[in-house]
Amino acid sequence: MVNLTIDNRAVSARENETILQAARNAGLYIPTLCFLSKVSAAGSCRLCVVEIEGVCGAVASCQTLVKEGLKVTTNSAALFETRRQIMQMMCVNHPLQCGVCDKSGDCELQDKALEFGLREQVFSAKEQPRIMEDWNALTYDPALCVLCERCVRTCNEIVGDAALSIETGGYKSKIAFDSLACSNCGECAAVCPVGAIVTKDFKYRANAWELTKTPSVCLYCSSGCDVVVETKRGEIKRVSADVENGFLCALGRFGFKQSRGATAFDKNAKTIRVNGDETNEEIFLLDEMGYKLVNNAIADFQTFLSAYAKASGETLYNASVADIAVSDTILLFAPAIGGECASIKSAIIRAATIGGAEVVAFAPFENETIAKAATRFIRYETLAEEGAFALLLKTLIKNPEGELKRWIEDLDVGALSAASGVGEEELESIAIGKKTLIALGGEIYSCPKAENIAAMIGLLRAKGFDILMIPPTPNALGIALTADIHSGEGDESDFPAAPNEAKEGTVVTIDRVIKPLNAAIACDGVSAGKLAKERGSQIKWTIDACARLPFNDVAFDDLTPYAIDNPKTEISVFAPSPIAPIEEFSGSMARYDAVYNPFKQEGEMIGSKQFALANGLKNGDNVKIKTKLGVIARKFIVSPKMKGVIAKLEVFDLPKIQTRIKYPYEAVNPRKDELNGG
Predict the structure, then answer these.
(1) Domains in the chain, start-ordered, CATH in brackets?
(2) pTM
């Protein structure tokens, strides 16, 4: 630790911390405009300047590291005047029509102008022509931009899109935008301290002080991000998160636009399909009422957890999202990571670009998201997951003993490598660090040999590797821990879940944390609580079941988020079964790819050059393809990132996929006349 003095107060800080970080950790205020804790310091606004005894002139506290014995002053008459002049320069030609700016009342530049007493502008400069720009879901006004670089660093270091950069040109400098790289997450607008970047859907529709803010949890993936749902007269105007430490993907920020409403429900149904975003309390009551609950994805996940527990000695996986940042090696088995769990994608990109971790992605195809997140890519054939994991197990466990040793020795490595497409040399060349994390995505739990893979993953956990499983639906983990979930045929009655922003209850996140949801809008219709009361239950509200959950005994109103237990289990003597011969798909391959983009109205079929060649297609063709979901019409797009005779078939109804199709890959052999509407 380093000891220093800030404003005559003794402060201890870690080595390599800046003065600004040390001051904030000690509860001392230093004004900033460009600084964000979650990204690297830009040092562009200079408002954080401080004085150091023995040093001539003021220094930027966000760029200056602490040293033993430093004596720092954060506020003085000279510093106030310096900061005031900085603000005057920053506001040169910045329009002051705050009454019509969407950031008014929530603007950091406005706050700092008041803090430093800017009542008139003493500087001036020749006005430059600055044209409002259209950025997909956003607008950018360079006349309002103060070039703090928050948006650029957030887009590069947190989101991983690298869609923004500084276009230098002196006084004409502005933010450059790459539309093709943008995922429309809106995080740049969230971190913008002024009104330069705003979302189109919010622009001119409300003032910040008119909004009612309801804290809740995002229910569009298993990350369980903390959000604030902002409403006006009962209508959702926007969804936001903590600017300093939070992050929302496109669906988390804009998903409320397509949030479904309550639907009709047959109360006499015996079997009902749940979508996977129901609260723990809803599932508990439905199960207690005797309904058979169906969701293929969660049923497979539940089975996978059970097999994993027998081999690992732990009921649940051990790792959390935070463990990604401190891992030296990350082995990623999640081809759909971009839509499946955006926080994982973001954390992996940061681990690779900032932390220097080796990220090895395993998948049947490479896509744009994997290319951004991974430092290496290892392709395996579809249906060959079991073989790929067996080869990985052999590589990672250096000194096997007993039955495991005999099992590994019995592997036909040459045949497995040939059939799976994974070479021994590829695996041997992976730089395994002191802390290695294996992350699994939803399709692993549903592949044909999933239970055997779970046993292998459990063995790796028992040998000290960290395991992180991405639940296949937003509350899959909570649901799997609450009730038995079954596979179905797709003809069950749908439970009429309320819109996510109208839910009240709890969920369990990917980090195994139970979190409370608060309803921001009203929703009339069928609820688990109403059904239970009709059948004689003594509960008043659905949330009354909170304290009766198998893993929680705290009443909803008293609940604060906490990590649920991961109890130990008895380890089987040996878990994996012999590796079965790897099946092969014939012809072209299609993968059902759920669309998580709230701005995309039409799906596409995105295929490799090999797929296009094999099926006589060219970029832009309108195609029709026969699938298990029926005949689907799509525009065909050639992707240079994809390899193998494979294509992604974008679909919007994720619950239908999870109910009707267990494994997301399907062999397709389209004829040219079928694909072109014949």
Answers:
(1) 2-90 (3.10.20.740), 272-295+476-563 (no CATH), 296-469 (3.40.228.10), 588-675 (2.40.40.20)
(2) 0.90
